[in-house]
Structure formats: structure tokens, C-alpha cells
């Protein structure tokens, strides 16, 4: 069974490698993003990328490549969000704008999160670090790292993210409402998770830093 879980984790890594995706982008200029951040992004995500609204993701410290990809996907429609599609389109964000925004938020310092439900944290830690061999859910740490730091280009930083946002995204992957994951990796994983497992993982992630 351990071999099965290890294979699942390896398959997940392979499915989203740079050779199979377009996440690799040239580095942007944080200074050139300042005006856009102030005018467009700060109201929801905070001027320093630390959002105070649980529904809006923290962007501080997130990998530049990941942010650029998400903005690109919002503009193309590969990732659905009426709000974000409207923002990207109405402000006519260019590829360079997106790279600059990615670089800006990547350069910001994320504030540490705080998990509150001890029972959920313990359950979430088991799944995050070891997966669920019974249902075939691989360990989150296999791709996102033991501390949730992620891997630039390949996998996003999760540490300290709002639990509400994490849960919503996992559920969106499970329902197929979010489909911009390479090789359907997150959709296949989320489809095997129970609602309680998603809540537990989200709670655990919110306390990582």
C-alpha cells in the first residue's frame, strides 16, 4: 500500500512538471506593479498581499509563476471567476503586468496563520503528511512540501492560507468547477476526499508558516 501511495505522489509530480505546462515565465519587475496593486489588488488582497477577508486568498510570498499563471487563466477563461475575469479584463492586464504582479506579491512577507481547531489540525496533519491509503489520497506534502512552501513553477505555496479559501478551492476541484490544474491532478485527488477531510486539511494548512 505504501508503494501505491508513493506512486500516486510521483505521478502527481510528473503530471505537473514544467515539461507539461506553461508556468515557466520570465521574471517580472515588482516596482512596475506598485500602481496596479494600489489601484486594483489591494482592496481585496491587501497592499502587502495579506488578505483580511477569508474568501480572498493571501498572495504574499506566493510563487510569482503561480500568480502569473492564475491571472493568465482568469483572462483566458481557463479558470472561472466572474470577479477576477472582470478585473483582469476591465483593467486590460498585459502579460508583462501579470508577471510584474507575480513578482511583487512573491516579494512580500506572508503573515503567519493560526489554526484554531485542535482536532481538525491533528486529522489534517495526518492527511497532509501521509495521505489516506484507504481512499488513495496522496500526501499533500509530496507536492507542496512538508511546511506547505510549494515548489516554484510547479506547485503553489499553501502555508498560512485562509482555511475558508483552501476548502473552497478543494471543493471546486472536486466538483469540477475549477479545472486549470495540470493533468487533472487536483481534480482527481479532491474527488477522493471527503468533506471532513477537506476541512481538516484546510485547518492544518492555515496554521503552517
Automatic annotation (TrEMBL):
PROSITE patterns according to UniProt: CYTC
Keyword Transport: yes
Gene3D superfamilies reported for this sequence: Cytochrome c-like domain
Domain Cytochrome c: 28-109, 119-209
Coiled coil: none
UniProt subcellular location: Periplasm
This protein's UniProt keywords: Electron transport, Heme, Iron, Metal-binding, Periplasm, Transport
Annotated GO MF terms: electron transfer activity; heme binding; iron ion binding
Pfam families: Cytochrom_C
Annotated InterPro entries: Cyt_c-like_dom (IPR009056), Cyt_c-like_dom_sf (IPR036909), Cytochrome_c4-like (IPR024167), Cytochrome_c_Oxidase_Subunit (IPR050597)
Signal peptide range in chain numbering: none
Gene Ontology annotations for the cellular component aspect, listed alphabetically: periplasmic space
PANTHER family: CBB3-TYPE CYTOCHROME C OXIDASE SUBUNIT FIXP, CYTOCHROME C4
Protein name: Cytochrome c4
Species, as recorded: mine drainage metagenome
Gene name of this polypeptide: cycA_10
Amino acid at each position: 500500500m505504501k508503494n501505491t501511495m508513493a506512486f500516486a505522489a510521483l505521478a502527481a509530480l510528473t503530471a505537473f512538471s514544467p515539461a507539461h505546462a506553461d508556468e515557466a515565465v520570465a521574471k517580472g519587475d515588482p516596482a512596475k506593479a506598485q500602481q496596479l496593486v494600489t489601484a486594483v489588488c489591494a482592496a481585496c488582497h491587501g497592499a502587502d498581499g495579506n488578505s483580511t477577508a477569508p474568501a480572498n486568498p493571501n498572495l504574499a510570498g506566493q510563487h510569482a509563476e503561480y500568480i502569473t499563471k492564475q491571472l493568465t487563466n482568469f483572462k483566458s477563461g481557463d479558470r472561472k471567476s466572474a470577479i477576477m475575469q472582470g478585473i483582469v479584463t476591465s483593467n486590460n492586464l498585459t502579460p508583462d503586468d501579470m508577471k510584474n504582479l507575480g513578482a511583487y506579491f512573491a516579494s512580500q512577507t506572508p503573515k503567519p496563520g493560526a489554526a484554531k481547531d485542535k482536532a481538525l489540525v491533528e486529522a489534517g496533519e495526518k492527511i497532509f503528511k501521509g495521505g489516506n491509503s484507504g481512499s488513495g489520497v496522496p500526501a499533500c506534502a509530496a507536492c507542496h512540501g512538508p511546511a506547505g512552501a510549494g515548489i516554484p513553477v510547479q506547485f503553489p505555496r499553501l502555508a498560512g492560507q485562509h482555511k475558508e479559501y483552501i476548502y473552497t478551492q478543494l471543493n471546486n476541484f472536486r466538483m469540477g468547477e475549477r479545472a486549470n490544474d495540470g493533468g487533472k491532478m487536483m481534480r482527481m485527488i479532491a474527488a477522493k476526499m471527503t468533506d471532513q477531510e477537506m476541512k481538516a486539511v484546510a485547518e492544518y494548512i492555515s496554521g503552517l508558516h
